[in-house]
Design a protein that fits this description.
The complex is a heterodimer of chains A (520) and B (377).
Chain A: H1 6-47, H2 50-84, H3 86-120, H4 127-156, E1 161-164, E2 169-172, H5 175-179, H6 182-213, H7 217-252, H8 254-261, E3 267-268, E4 272-278, E5 292-298, H9 301-307, E6 313-314, H10 317-322, H11 336-358, H12 362-375, H13 394-421, H14 430-455, E7 460-462, E8 466-467, H15 468-471, H16 477-508
Antiparallel strand pairs in A: 1-2, 3-6, 4-5, 7-8
Helix pairs in contact in A: 1-2, 1-4, 1-6, 1-14, 1-16, 2-3, 2-16, 3-4, 4-6, 6-7, 6-14, 7-8, 7-13, 8-13, 11-12, 13-14
Chain B: H1 3-24, H2 26-32, H3 34-37, H4 41-52, H5 55-72, H6 74-83, H7 85-104, H8 114-141, E1 145-147, E2 162-164, H9 177-201, H10 205-235, E3 238-241, E4 248-251, H11 254-261, H12 263-285, H13 292-312, E5 318-320, E6 330-331, H14 332-335, H15 339-349, H16 352-366
Helix pairs in contact in B: 1-5, 1-13, 1-15, 2-4, 2-8, 2-9, 5-6, 7-8, 8-9, 9-10, 9-13, 10-12, 11-12, 12-13
The chains are: A mainly alpha (520), B mainly alpha (377).
Chain lengths: 520, 377
């Protein structure tokens, strides 16, 4: 059997990243705008005022345009696990497939069924039933996110399974451990609340444009009122869940945290880099000089962020490769070389187990199975050829992390300001302009968060168990290159089309014949 | 519940989702009729409106079909998707352009223009059923792959556990005319179902009479394709698990033997074909009857379910035969998830009737009255 071409791995990764990043442009707006739309329609049903119905319908138009592309890119992602990561699909499909199936049965049908009622049911359903349809659509989308994030969290923190050498795959033994893993819960909360922030920024941004133009002012103020409350609560919640996520990352993916901080040598009471500029061409496994041109550091803040203790120990990249620092169990951590050696032993044990089974040698099979059981935790390391492969792209992770966190802080200030300003925003032209320009920043923060989570965990498809090089499908590299460019062109055209339509919808504005909600 | 029962149960569910998908492809069939049936802009918009209310169900069923297949038979997911790369990629591309077209087509400033999006829908309408039919044909007539799960156990250079043995990565399926024939059967069925659906949903005298004039030709063509395929299918040599050696061996007229061996599948098939026939002929016999879609729809689900089950349920369940190495063929037993996973998923599957109930409720809520020109205003 031919070994896998290394460039195939890169192209497969690139294709998956392309699809995921495009998909992730649309999903947060679906979740965030969806919630705001639900609140607006609830106000309509409660007050009976047609104004709120028209406000809701306007945002629903934009929701629909965005939703379609989100759905289109999502289907590709689901099937790409099979098309581009066939070893992965077998090796962990017993666990990973379940959340995807549950998503389809429980969440996606809910979303797809009620969205038709939501769009086409305004004149066919009672007010209450229509409102229920809108909530169910958004609930379905959020539930869908739950199951997808359960699957994603499991890749970062594999739990609730055992390796079966008979079938050469991991098998689920505890569904609750998978579905309710603390990483999944936190990932869901962080992702959904950050999506609400994006939705809220979108609404206040578009509304600010109307204020700048002096059009649809009542509509704009009403929308800003709802969105700024949602945005403020969500931005604060995103900060809290972000901190909790960082604590988890420090424990289960310390290399990701070290890369996000550009931290070579860790220790106790480590500072957090607020802003920094990295040197290029650094050998992150063993740098000979300070990798920063400059950095502004908050003393002890990284220790506090990662361990909830200002004097807590945080390992750096070199510590993680060389080992010897105090591990969670109190014992010195293994070096990368040691983990790789144990991993190779695990792979060898699997081979000898299968050979013993074929030879009907029960004693040898039992001994190999026992050896595999002890070493399996490090099996993924056995596929690596050098410790440096364990280091993700530090530059990408470092800057993405800063973009995400700094913009997260900015959004708290933005929404608090909008909340306090109320209708006075109209008189301060620079503020609406700033709010409008914040829309791309929300997307930037959202994508940066995805980059930190996914680039930061490289080279793993499944943390510690399966690196990308062992997960990929055996395809001609040229085939994947071709589909990569096909998707790139298609998604880009669709994105441009969506932007053109959205800009037109915004330019046309809401139904201006609507009465103003007096003193609501 | 034994492990074997769970495997068969999940095979049934996946086949059921596949059967629902084929029925719901009346949306695709409808998209191929936009330019033929609808002559004026108003008529085309009516057709697009009625199919536009249903495309998400087809789409969702495809996604759930994929998810359920992944969860219950991951080796299929790994082998077929990773091997027949181009067929699946083309299917996905078809569905991507469909998803955006309905939403974008009638919007101002949609970049590509209304006609382009309608052409996308037409392409999806033709290629979707043909490609899916061709891909499903390989369940009966085989594909070119080999599987060795131990390939992953190499620390020097891990290889893929399943790989395709032709450089065409799935496109070679068209070289077997029986696969293409199945694609054409699905295409013609989707068009016939679309006619019936339009008769049921659209109140437009002109389109109605045009549809009724087209229907006999479409139905005839469907039956020609279907009966030819049925003859190929029933006479095909398939693969089964030998009861004596446990190895995978060829069996002449496998699918006919399955029908004889599993009478419940035979009954389902006959009932399905009967209902499809009644549904297709009803509007022709009772001029313009609106109810053909329900007969033909139910019949489609039963027929497709029976045909798919004939691949999975009979004689060791060799549902995805390998032409390159018969011993690599996928069976229910060697490709399924663990007993624990299937058991957990079976509990989740108890929600399916509830899902069907709210879909029916939503369908009825939206479809209380037929579409006419006033809905386009």
């Amino acid at each position: 059997m031919e070994p896998i071409d290394p460039s195939l791995i890169d192209w497969s990764r690139a294709q998956f990243a392309l699809t995921a990043m495009y998909h992730w442009l649309f999903v947060p707006l679906t979740l965030g705008l969806g919630l705001i739309m639900c609140i607006m329609e609830s106000i309509y049903v409660k007050t009976g005022h047609e104004f709120w119905k028209n406000v809701t319908r306007f945002w629903m138009k934009l929701f629909g345009v965005n939703f379609a592309v989100g759905v289109a890119t999502g289907i590709i992602l689901e099937f790409e696990f099979g098309t581009n990561w066939s070893n992965y699909s077998w090796f962990v499909g017993d666990i990973f497939g379940a959340p995807l199936a549950v998503e389809g049965i429980v969440a996606f049908f809910l979303e797809a069924t009620f969205i038709s009622l939501m769009f086409f049911g305004w004149n066919k359903l009672g007010r209450g039933t229509h409102l229920m349809s809108t909530w169910m659509t958004v609930f379905g989308a959020t539930l869908s996110a739950w199951w997808i994030l359960v699957a994603n969290a499991w890749m970062q923190y594999p739990v609730g399974m055992d390796f079966n050498p008979e079938t050469v795959r991991n098998e689920m033994v505890n569904f609750a451990a998978v579905a309710l893993s603390p990483v999944a819960v936190m990932k869901f909360l962080h992702t959904v609340t950050s999506s609400w922030v994006l939705g809220a920024v979108f609404v206040v941004g578009v509304s600010s444009w109307y204020l700048l133009r002096g059009k649809h002012n009542d509509f704009a103020h009403a929308s800003i009122r709802v969105a700024s409350v949602v945005g403020l609560v969500a931005a604060l919640a995103t900060g809290v869940t972000g901190h909790q996520s960082a604590v988890q990352v420090a424990r289960i993916q310390p290399m990701k945290l070290a890369a996000a901080e550009g931290l070579v040598d860790g220790g106790q009471g480590v500072g957090l880099v607020g802003i920094g500029l990295l040197k290029s061409g650094v050998n992150w496994g063993n740098p000979q000089e300070d990798p920063f041109f400059f950095k502004l550091e908050l003393p002890r803040a990284l220790s506090l962020l990662a361990t909830n203790d200002p004097n807590g120990y945080v390992p750096g990249i070199r510590n993680l490769l060389e080992g010897g620092y105090p591990g969670e169990d109190g014992l010195p951590a293994l070096s990368a070389e040691q983990q790789m050696a144990i991993g190779k032993k695990a792979i060898q044990s699997l081979i000898t187990y299968r050979a013993a089974r074929e030879a009907d040698d029960a004693a040898a099979a039992k001994s190999s199975a026992e050896s595999l059981r002890h070493s399996f935790r490090y099996m993924g390391y056995g596929y690596l050829h050098s410790p440096e492969e364990l280091i993700p792209s530090v530059v990408t992770t470092f800057y993405s992390f800063r973009v995400m966190v700094l913009l997260g802080g900015y959004f708290v200030v933005l929404f608090a300001g909008l909340f306090l300003l109320g209708r006075r925003i109209e008189r301060l032209k620079l503020i609406p302009l700033g709010v409008l320009l914040s829309i791309p920043l929300a997307y930037l923060a959202s994508e940066a968060g995805w980059v930190v989570a996914e680039v930061g965990r490289q080279p793993w498809a499944i943390q510690g168990l399966l690196p990308n090089c062992a997960a990929v499908s055996r395809l001609a590299t040229s085939s994947v290159q071709l589909t990569f460019w096909l998707f790139f062109v298609l998604f880009t055209v669709l994105l441009i089309a969506e932007l053109c339509i959205m800009l037109r919808v915004v330019a046309d504005g809401p139904d201006s014949s609507t009465e103003i909600p007096v003193a609501e | 519940m034994t492990y074997t029962f769970l495997q068969e149960y999940w095979c049934f569910l996946v086949c059921f989702l596949g059967a629902l998908l084929v029925f719901l492809m009346f949306v695709q069939g409808g998209q191929t009729l936009i330019f033929q049936l609808g002559r004026s802009e108003e008529q085309r918009r009516m057709l697009l409106l009625v199919t536009g209310r249903k495309w998400e169900l087809t789409f969702t069923t495809l996604v759930t079909f994929g998810g359920a297949f992944f969860a219950s038979f991951p080796l299929f997911y790994s082998t077929s998707f990773g091997g027949a790369y181009w067929v699946w990629m083309l299917i996905l591309l078809c569905f991507v352009i469909q998803a955006v077209s309905y939403e974008f087509m009638h919007r101002h400033s949609n970049l590509l223009g209304k006609r382009t999006y309608r052409c996308f829908l037409f392409l999806n309408g033709v290629l979707g059923p043909v490609l899916i039919g061709t891909a499903v044909g390989t369940f009966f007539f085989g594909a070119n792959f080999v599987v060795n799960k131990l390939n992953i156990a190499s620390s020097v250079a891990p290889a893929a556990i399943s790989s395709w043995t032709t450089p065409w990565h799935g496109l070679e399926a068209v070289a077997d005319f029986r696969n293409v024939l199945l694609g054409l059967v699905v295409l013609m069925l989707s068009r016939c179902l679309a006619h019936l659906y339009f008769l049921n949903r659209v109140d437009d005298v002109e389109m109605r009479s045009r549809g009724l004039r087209m229907l006999p030709w479409e139905v005839s063509l469907f039956f020609v394709f279907f009966l030819t395929f049925a003859a190929c299918w029933l006479s095909a040599t398939g693969f089964v698990v030998s009861e004596t050696t446990g190895s995978i061996v060829p069996m002449e007229m496998k699918f006919l033997n399955v029908l004889m061996d599993r009478p419940e599948i035979l009954v389902m098939l006959l009932a399905g074909v009967g209902l499809v026939s009644v549904g297709l002929l009803l509007p022709l016999v009772r001029h313009g009857s609106r109810y053909g879609i329900w007969w033909a729809g139910t019949g489609t689900v039963l027929t497709v379910l029976a045909m798919l089950l004939s691949a999975g349920w009979g004689f060791g369940g060799v549902y995805y035969p390998s032409l390159a190495d018969p011993q690599s063929s996928l069976t229910l037993a060697n490709s399924c998830s663990s007993e624990f996973t299937l058991r957990v998923m079976s509990v989740v599957s108890l929600m399916i009737p509830f899902v069907l109930l709210y879909i029916i409720w939503a369908w009825r809520a939206l479809e209380k009255k037929s579409i006419d020109s006033s809905d386009i205003a």
